[in-house]
Amino acid sequence: MLLSLVLHTYSMRYVLPAAVMMGTAPTYVLAWGAWRLLSAVLPARFYREVDDRLYTIYQSMVLFFFENYTGVQVTIYGDLPKNKENVIYLSNHQFDWIIADMLAIRQNALGHVRYVLKDGLKWLPLYGWYFSQHGGVYVKRSAKFNEKEMREKLRAQMKTETPMYLVIFPEGTRYNPEMPKVIADSQSFAEKEGLAILKHVLTPRVKATHVAIDTMKNYLDAVYDVTVAYEGTVDHKGQRKLAPSMTEFLCKECPRVHIFIDRIELKDIPEEQMYMRRWLHERFEIKDKLLLTGTSFLGPKQSVRLLIEFYDAKDSKRRNKFPGKSVHSKLSLKKTLPSLLFLGGLTASMLLTESGRKLYVKTWIYGTLIGCLWVSIKP
């Protein structure tokens, strides 16, 4: 029974982080809502500047748990600039939204992160509404994809000179080895279209990427092509397992995360959608198997394996790491702990009084209802 209690306690290590991250959401929304009202008579750029600062505070608190609390070792390969830029961030899709935060905070650009998200996520309580207000773009798949709507939202943000760290996951859904039909369908589509069949990533979709790059090509500094892999996701038989969930990550079941960044100039990306589609697929081939040559971080005639090398290398010493030079990047508590203390303190002080608790509960209820109403009538 004692052993069972110990195991249960061990598995509950995610409860405190989850409670704090979710529990501070109403406090954050109240602070943001107050600023939204105050800034209604001010130029839009003033709202954006403070909104980005507020977003930095909240996401810094989130990163306290995902980096400092878990003690995960972050290993970075490639060419991540030290300074913030206006970029589109393309990545393979697992549990990867937190990786965008990890890179952005190291460039002092955390408040600039905005996402292209599945349309269904706009119904998330509080968060769904806020992500849209922060500059996130909700999109539907396939024939329901509204290109005009996406372009209008991006143009509106450029008009207000909104800093852009736009995160796109071209696969559209997470790669899951436990869903072989999804993988098989993706590979069948690639074969039908005459594209290379990919093993460790899904066939990427080009629509959102093309619209974003085409709309903002004179606004962007670069595109970041990011490949993410987690250690401990290969079983004893050498079979790849599902990437860690948020709960597993917070339970410290992910010892290391490896992040490979390739910074691409806009002039090196085709403009026509048909050619960009081929280019994007080739970028995912680079992630998946032997292809990348002549890069800035390797010799001119060297080639690399990314995910195949990471997961399948015959030499165990080469497995669980990407080729090339890397740095172990540890995030300072100075960047995260103050945000935790600030938001945690505000939330605790609200919950100490009866009127504060009523306001807290009403924010959850009415904030969710107003948010759902808002996103149902406005993109």
Q: If you had to describe this structure to a student in words, what would you say it looks like?
A:
The protein has helices spanning 2-11, 15-23, 25-38, 44-69, 97-105, 127-133, 147-159, 180-192, 207-216, 246-250, 273-288, 307-312, 337-351, 354-377; strands at 73-78, 87-91, 113-118, 137-139, 165-168, 222-230, 256-264, 292-293, 303-304, 326-329. With 379 residues, the protein is of the alpha/beta class. Strands 4-3-5-2-6-7-1-10 form an eight-stranded mixed β-sheet. Strands 8-9 form a two-stranded antiparallel sheet. β3, α6 and β4 form a beta-alpha-beta unit. The radius of gyration is 21 Å and the shape is globular.
Q: How far is the first residue's CA from the last residue's CA? A: 53 Å
Radius of gyration: 21 Å
List the total number of helices: 14
Helix content: 40-55%
Instruction: Write down the overall geometry.
Output: globular
Structural class: alpha/beta
Order of helices and strands: HHHHEEHEHEHEHHEHEHEEHEHH
Number of strands: 10
Mean pLDDT: 84
Tell me the β content.
Answer: 5-15%
Gist?
It contains 14 helices and 10 strands.
Layout of SSEs?
Elements: H1 2-11, H2 15-23, H3 25-38, H4 44-69, E1 73-78, E2 87-91, H5 97-105, E3 113-118, H6 127-133, E4 137-139, H7 147-159, E5 165-168, H8 180-192, H9 207-216, E6 222-230, H10 246-250, E7 256-264, H11 273-288, E8 292-293, E9 303-304, H12 307-312, E10 326-329, H13 337-351, H14 354-377
Parallel strand pairs: 1-7, 2-5, 2-6, 3-4, 3-5
Antiparallel strand pairs: 1-10, 6-7, 8-9
Helix pairs in contact: 3-4, 3-14, 4-5, 4-13, 6-14, 7-9
